[in-house]
Design goal:
This protein is about 40% helix and about 15% strand. The protein has helices spanning about 10-25, 45-55, 65-85, 105-120, 120-125, 145-150, 170-185, 205-215, 270-280, 310-345, 380-385, 390-400, 425-445, and strands spanning about 35, 95-100, 130-135, 160, 185-195, 220-225, 250, 265-270, 350-355, 360-365, 405-410, 415-420. The strands form two sheets. It has a seven-stranded mixed beta sheet with strand order 2-8-7-6-5-3-4, with helices on both faces. A five-stranded mixed beta sheet has the order 1-11-12-10-9.
């Protein structure tokens, strides 16, 4: 991996051996027992699309450099916006958003748009004297805090709002937090609703939050990085009811839909706001009098050079169709439901920490002496031992390369988290992973002090 002080040129055989070593040493994210994160192995068609986009080696900034991809982006973004029930744009008008390098960057852009709407002169004069604050659930993504820091708002500008036992924001708590901010002389300007939290896959009530935002003239941004893909399924789309009332909506297709890293769409209800907020008018690149200059997208985003992320999504969507994409979501929920059913009939060997109804399953393995588990009445020493058990289970899995699962504290206890992103996962894989967790749990419990 390292380099010599004077690195020589290597033979093709050396490079091939190095590539094989990289493959052997890498995590098999396409393996059906990789349930560690909210992405999985890439769809083969997406890999082809990513390769082709890279091989053509252009940038999505201008129509002249990427005519096919500019039109492709418009078509795909319009399709996604239609699924979110955003207002339909006329043919030939601006795309209802843009592709971004990941969900955190998209959230950064959305908050800049929100601040720009509040302070339109900010792009020339800089930030005003108002103490702006934004709101996100205490289970929301840390992109809100990172964005506030980069935007100069300060991390104290992020108000964390209470959530229910499943991890969804409590609307009354948001209303109270907004009123409290106004009373303290602060200026609320944005709310981030989470559609699929990272840990428990909880969905905030977009309709209820939109009511509050409309009452206070706040920008509503929906972080659907994870759960946005529920819109592909007729059975699951209800989870994003009210998303059409948002001002912006970020959607990571590299999570549930198997696109290669990364493939992120930021949808904007009023796409004209993008140019007003981000345009710099560089006359060497975005000349108004050149051929097809009106199609250039580069002045509608902070980026200039931009990789081609749309091709893999377009190609995969054409291959699988709407029905195939819906089937991927439905299969993920079916596997999660199967896991919940196995936990429910495990005679107390496993205990859910959060009930859950979507694609994440959060639970603990319970030592025989603690069954049936009652976390509320658990002795502090047993609680501490149980809290330290999940990391040891995962460490054994990693060391023996048998599976990969996640863990994190939920309601005060480290819980195992299984995420179902991979359409190759079958009931037998779920059952095998639970057997492994139980076996490692039994072996490690005696060693936890």
């Amino acid at each position: 991996i390292g380099f010599a002080d004077e690195e020589p040129a290597h033979s093709e055989a050396d490079l091939l051996a190095a590539a094989e070593l990289v493959v052997r040493g890498s995590v098999r994210t396409n393996h059906p027992r990789f349930m560690n994160q909210n992405f999985a192995g890439a769809d083969p068609t997406a890999v082809v699309g990513d390769w082709l986009g890279a091989a053509l080696n252009t940038t999505g900034a201008t129509f002249e450099a990427a005519p096919v991809f500019t039109l492709m982006e418009q078509a795909v973004l319009a399709k996604l916006a239609g699924m979110a029930r955003y207002p339909l744009a006329e043919a030939g008008t601006l795309a209802p958003g843009l592709f971004c390098p990941g969900g955190s960057t998209a959230t950064l852009y959305a908050l800049q748009l929100a601040r720009h709407r509040r302070e339109p002169e900010m792009v020339r004069r800089g930030a005003g004297a108002e103490r702006l604050v934004l709101f996100v659930s205490d289970a929301g993504h840390y992109a809100a805090t990172k964005s506030a820091a980069l935007l100069g708002l300060g991390t104290d500008a992020v108000v964390k709002v209470a959530t229910d036992v499943e991890g969804a924001m409590v609307p009354t708590a948001l209303a109270e937090a907004v009123d409290r901010a106004w009373a303290q002389g602060e200026t609320p300007f944005a709310v981030i609703a989470t559609a699929g939290t990272t840990v428990t896959s909880a969905f905030d009530d977009c309709d209820a939050l939109a009511d509050i935002c409309e009452a206070h003239d706040l920008w509503l941004h929906v972080d659907g990085c994870y759960g946005g893909s529920a819109l592909f399924s007729l059975a699951q789309a209800h989870r994003l009811r009210g998303v059409e009332r948002s001002d912006s909506f970020v959607w990571n297709l590299h999570k549930m839909m198997g696109m290669t890293q990364q493939c992120t769409a930021l949808l904007v209800r009023d796409p004209a706001q993008l140019e007003a907020c981000f345009a710099a008018g560089a006359d060497y690149l975005f000349q108004p009098d050149k051929l097809y200059g009106e199609y250039d997208s580069g002045d509608r985003t902070f980026q200039c050079a931009r990789r081609i992320d749309v091709l893999k999504l377009w190609l995969s969507w054409k291959k699988h169709g709407d029905a195939g994409f819906a089937g991927r979501i439905d299969h993920a929920v079916t596997m999660a439901d199967h896991t919940r059913a196995l936990i429910g009939c495990s005679d107390g060997a496993f205990a859910p920490v959060v009930a859950g109804t979507f694609t994440n399953v959060v639970f603990v393995w319970v030592p025989p002496a603690l069954r049936p588990l009652d976390l509320a009445s658990l002795a502090s020493t047993d609680h501490e031992r149980l809290h330290r058990l999940a990391p040891r289970i995962k460490a054994r899995m990693q060391a023996e390369a048998t599976a990969m699962v996640g863990f994190q504290p939920v309601h005060g206890i480290n819980a195992v988290r299984l995420l179902f992103m991979n359409p190759a996962v079958q009931p037998g894989d779920v059952e095998a992973v639970l057997v492994l967790i139980a076996a490692y749990g039994e072996q490690e419990w005696a060693n936890v002090d």
